[in-house]
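User: Here's a structure from my thesis project, written as structure tokens. My advisor, Dr. K., wants to see whether a designed sequence matches the one we expressed. Can you design one independently, without my sequence as a hint?
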């Protein structure tokens, strides 16, 4: 009994000691939690009331520096741009601006080009930095990323320059030809010859203006506002009829197949223009007495069924370096040949934007001397209509007035997957 009592007493004493130690540890933990931390003393106590909230809602990257050039507060965007590293401002010109502002209290602003983090291609970030005093000891740095704005400005500038150049050529030609007609008023044959040239240049000018209007329209309008099921065979027939004269002049055979009972969902006018541009390019860049095929088929895809319309020619083909740029505005694989055929360099840009605005894409396979296959891939009417009903609110596309900043890149497509010979027997249309 004595032994048992001693053991029980020892256990009781140990339990009491454990409880006391646990209570003391709990009290100490609470005290430590309530004690202001170094970071809280450094930020909450230093920043003026409300500044933290204001900085959190600013679109600009924000950094607050103290009198020792240490970062008191920095937004997540500042870290993403690489402005702050290891608790310090990592951009020396901005650091010097902050020191000068702290010394004289003047607000400073400058535009800088900063190296982009994580890339080895020498790309730079264009930023605008503004430094102002914040209270008596702090300095506020606001940085705005101007990279995208600069890129859009460059594209807009190039676009205007290209348009000016393209318009200048036919306008200048018309001016010279009109003078020639006046000088040759006594020579009926010369007048007739010059008048014919004037008609060619006037037609080229009209086509250029019309394609500029079409490009602006497809980039600014929402084609799915008035969307409807469109029969693919009707689009193919319109495209062939549009190019029938050019094809007949060059004795090019056009063949269509596989388009029966297929429907796409979208704007009929834009889709007809896009497919017509592809067929017209195929005819213009094909040698005489060759073949152009237009074929369509339905393709199962995880996001819904798609319709692929392939336009295959036996023309000059496209080199690998040109395939990366053929969907850019005014870019021509063969400028001399484009001048001869009246091409403006806008047809494929229109095709790209029509495809993108309809939720599809355009791809190209080509080999020099073997021809090309352009494939217009669009959502099938039923699947696209269901998605449109499920998501009636569509976000407004960026870009504006025919100045979409995307240059457009093509994706190689195997000829076996799109060539018209693999589809049902085509209907030959002379």
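Assistant: Designed independently from the structure alone:
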């Amino acid at each position: 009994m004595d032994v048992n009592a001693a053991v029980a007493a020892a256990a009781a004493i140990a339990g009491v000691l454990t409880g006391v130690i646990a209570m003391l540890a709990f009290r100490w933990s609470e005290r430590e939690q309530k004690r202001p931390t170094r970071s809280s003393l450094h930020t909450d106590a230093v920043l003026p009331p409300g500044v933290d909230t204001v900085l959190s809602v600013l679109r600009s990257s924000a950094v607050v520096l103290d009198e020792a050039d240490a970062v008191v507060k920095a937004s997540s965007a500042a870290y993403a741009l690489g402005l702050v590293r290891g608790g310090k401002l990592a951009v020396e010109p901005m650091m010097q601006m902050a020191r000068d502002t702290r010394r004289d209290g003047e607000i400073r602003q400058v535009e800088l080009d900063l190296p982009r983090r994580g890339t080895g291609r020498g790309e730079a970030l264009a930023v605008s930095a503004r430094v102002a005093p914040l209270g008596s000891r702090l300095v506020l740095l606001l940085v705005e990323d101007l990279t995208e704005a600069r890129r859009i400005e460059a594209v807009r500038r190039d676009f205007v320059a290209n348009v000016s150049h393209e318009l200048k050529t036919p306008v200048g030609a018309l001016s010279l030809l009109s003078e020639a007609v006046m000088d040759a008023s006594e020579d009926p044959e010369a007048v007739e010859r010059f008048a014919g040239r004037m008609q060619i240049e006037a037609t080229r000018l009209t086509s250029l203006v019309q394609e500029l209007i079409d490009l602006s329209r497809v980039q600014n309008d929402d084609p799915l506002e008035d969307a409807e099921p469109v029969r693919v065979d009707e689009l193919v027939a319109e495209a062939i009829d549009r190019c029938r004269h050019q094809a007949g002049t060059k004795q090019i055979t056009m063949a269509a197949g596989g388009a029966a009972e297929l429907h796409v969902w979208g704007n009929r006018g834009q889709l007809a223009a896009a497919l017509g541009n592809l067929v017209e390019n195929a005819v213009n860049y094909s040698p005489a007495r060759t073949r152009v095929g237009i074929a369509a088929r339905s393709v199962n895809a995880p996001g819904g069924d798609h319709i692929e319309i392939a336009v295959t020619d036996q023309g000059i083909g496209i080199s690998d370096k040109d395939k990366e740029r053929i969907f850019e505005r005014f870019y021509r694989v063969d400028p001399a040949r484009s001048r001869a055929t009246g091409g403006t360099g806008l047809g494929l840009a229109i095709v790209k934007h029509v495809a993108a605005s309809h939720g599809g894409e355009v791809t190209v396979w080509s080999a020099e001397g073997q021809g090309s296959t352009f494939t217009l891939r669009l959502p099938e009417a039923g699947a696209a209509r269901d998605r449109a009903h499920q998501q009636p609110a569509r976000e407004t596309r960026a870009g504006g007035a025919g100045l979409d900043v995307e240059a457009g890149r093509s994706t190689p497509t195997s000829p076996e997957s799109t060539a018209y010979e693999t589809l049902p027997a085509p209907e030959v249309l002379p």
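When you compare it with your expressed construct, this may help: The chain has two domains: 42-145, 223-429.
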